[in-house]
Design goal:
Elements: E1 2-6, H1 13-24, E2 27-30, H2 31-39, H3 43-50, H4 52-69, E3 73-76, H5 87-93, E4 97-103, H6 106-114, H7 129-147, E5 152-155, H8 161-172
Parallel strand pairs: 1-3, 1-4, 2-3, 4-5
The structure holds shikimate-3-phosphate.
């Protein structure tokens, strides 16, 4: 079985994947890192050189590759992965994958992302916290349709990665 973690940028997908993997004695894989390794460029550089449409095509292609190649992995997606190219359908139809939506409040996302937005191409240009909040609010509204199709939802607010990983373990096993 693979466990697929999804949710908005800054919800903690990668660190929770690592923690959950260590608690379960499994390996973790991060789709963004996989794309960077395969393309030999950072995500920011891929956006800069080729634009978002190219990135979304590659993202979908590598997601398929990961799901076909790996078993018994905790896979963390990019924030936008479930929302493009039929990716959420692919995950839902994959009998060997369990999907978890890591849900984080708008306030917490804004606080986390404001200090680390530079390497995130979709929000790097937003300069004030108020503008970032407006952007995320609208974006979350559009994306929730896809995120809510995950098999399980875990709220991450006011919890540390260990607690969140434990909660996921209890949900699944
Ligand atoms: C994106 C999220 C990023 C990365 C890319 C696009 C998005 O991943 O895939 O910058 O559309 O939300 P993280 O959620 O890991 O930051």
């Amino acid at each position: 079985m693979n466990i697929v973690l999804l949710g908005y940028m800054g919800c903690g997908k990668s660190s929770i994947a690592k923690e959950l993997a260590s608690q379960l004695g499994m390996n973790s894989l991060d789709l963004d890192h996989y794309i960077e390794d395969q393309e030999k460029k950072s995500i920011a550089q891929i956006f800069k050189d080729h634009g978002e449409i190219y990135f979304r095509k590659k993202e979908s292609q590598y997601l398929k590759q990961l799901l076909e190649t790996y078993t018994n992995h905790i896979i963390s997606l990019g924030g936008g992965t479930p929302c493009f190219a039929g990716n959420m359908e692919l995950i839902k139809n994959d009998a060997t994958s369990k999907s978890i939506y890591l849900k984080t409040s708008l306030e917490e996302l804004v606080n986390r992302l404001f200090t680390e937005k530079e390497h995130r191409p979709l929000i790097a240009h937003i300069s004030s916290k108020e503008d970032l909040k407006d952007f995320i609010r609208k974006h979350l509204f559009e994306r929730s349709f896809y995120y809510n199709q995950a098999e399980h939802m875990v709220s991450t607010d006011a919890k540390n990665v260990k607690e969140i990983a434990l909660e996921i373990k209890e949900l699944l096993f």
